[in-house]
Design brief:
The longest helix has 23 residues, at 20-42. A hairpin with a 2-residue loop joins strand 1 (58-61) and strand 2. Strands 1-2 form a two-stranded antiparallel sheet. It has two domains: 1-41 and 66-141, no CATH class; 145-212, no CATH class. It is built from nine helices and two strands. It has 217 residues and is mainly alpha-helical.
Length: 217
């Protein structure tokens, strides 16, 4: 996935720099094409990954019980967030990334290879997306249409948390996960209302998201 992400960034998205609408349309079209290729090669048969044996049994705490693998997935997600946060805020590479995003022209003047840096970061993001699919395989079955089910959730996470904010992504994912499961369990008839209503409120009251920075004109 990291390699595929790097190829897409180099061959397609780089030619559409600063054209956000075109980038959205291109990546959305690619997702449809990849989904059809998956149907052609693997057919429409749902499959489910096996859980590690050590994580197959539930974890009990007093009167509560929770699947051990789900707890392990949450801990891995928090660990990945911590590593990314340390990399971006506490390392030289993170400083280069921030400089390349804030002012690419000035970053090039001081010797930062912005083009190569962006490709590396895009590969990292695509690789993390693939890793997330591996971790989520034992929890969610792999079936045709899973991409279209997950895409709105990712969109809501970004809108709630704020674009460009790691803390916002973490908080937004917990909010969306709670609302999604709570809505399906308690109010299945209006589950999507419960899920999308906070996004609408945030868009009206704080368009940059909970932790995003307002655009400077």
């Amino acid at each position: 996935m990291a390699a595929i992400g790097g190829i897409i960034e180099r061959l397609l998205l780089r030619r559409l720099a600063n054209q956000h609408q075109a980038q959205v349309l291109v990546t959305l079209g690619l997702s449809f094409m990849i989904a059809d290729l998956c149907l052609m090669f693997w057919a429409a048969i749902p499959s489910r990954s096996r859980r590690p044996r050590r994580c197959a049994s539930p974890s009990r705490c007093s009167a509560c019980a929770s699947p051990l693998y789900r707890l392990a997935a949450v801990l891995v997600a928090v660990l990945a967030f911590a590593i990314l946060w340390l990399m971006i805020d506490r390392t030289r590479l993170g400083a280069m990334i921030r400089a390349g995003v804030d002012d690419p022209a000035m970053a090039r003047v001081v010797g930062i290879r912005v083009s190569r840096l962006f490709t590396i970061i895009f590969c990292l993001g695509a690789g993390l997306a693939g890793f997330r699919r591996v971790m989520g395989g034992p929890i969610l079955s792999i079936y045709p249409g899973l991409d279209t089910d997950m895409l709105p959730l990712a969109l809501i996470v970004v809108i709630l948390g704020g674009s460009g904010s790691l803390v916002g992504a973490l908080v937004g994912s917990f909010i969306v996960g709670f609302l999604y499961n709570f809505g399906q369990a308690m109010f299945p008839e209006i589950a999507y209302v419960i899920l999308f209503l906070p996004m609408l409120i945030v868009l009206v009251l704080r368009p940059q998201g909970l932790f995003g920075k307002a655009a400077v004109s």
